[in-house]
Amino acid sequence: MADSQVRTQRPLSPHIQIFRPYLTMMMSITHRITGGALYVGTLLLVVWLLAAATGRSGYEHVQWFMGSIIGRLILLGYTWALIHHLIGGVRHLVWDVGLGFGPEARENMARLNIIGSVVLTILIWIVAYAVR
């Protein structure tokens, strides 16, 4: 009975109050969020295709909405989520090969993921407006 009352010193698990977030952890969370956002964006693509298949009136309604400020912001967010998720996938592919596990390499790849996704999204939208 005396043994059961002896408290053992066990290590505490890190939790949100004591665990300091770092860039690669935030990128992992963002990668998962953008993956979920791509599901919603794919539903928008399905709505657009169904509208195109049903006729001119439905298609014009969807085109009007996508041409509005809200629609363009949604499309901008979808573009960024797509590019960010793509670059994050390439980053994971590099890790699958066995490269980029050093602390400096991980941080640099995370920074490149952020910068690359923003820059490529802006370039895609510039090209889209130039072609339009």
TrEMBL record:
The heme is bound between the two transmembrane subunits. It is a multi-pass membrane protein. It comes from the Bacteria. Heme binds at residue 85. GO terms for molecular function: electron transfer activity; metal ion binding. The keyword Plastid does not apply. It is found in: Membrane. Its cofactor is heme. The keyword Protein biosynthesis does not apply. Keywords: Heme, Iron, Membrane, Metal-binding, Transmembrane, Transmembrane helix. One of its GO terms (cellular component) is membrane. The chain crosses the membrane at residues 33-52, 64-83, 112-131. One of its GO terms (biological process) is tricarboxylic acid cycle. Pfam families: Sdh_cyt (PF01127). Part of an enzyme complex containing four subunits: a flavoprotein, an iron-sulfur protein, plus two membrane-anchoring proteins, SdhC and SdhD. The complex can form homotrimers. Belongs to the cytochrome b560 family. Membrane-anchoring subunit of succinate dehydrogenase (SDH). This is Succinate dehydrogenase cytochrome b556 subunit. It comes from Alsobacter soli. The gene is sdhC.
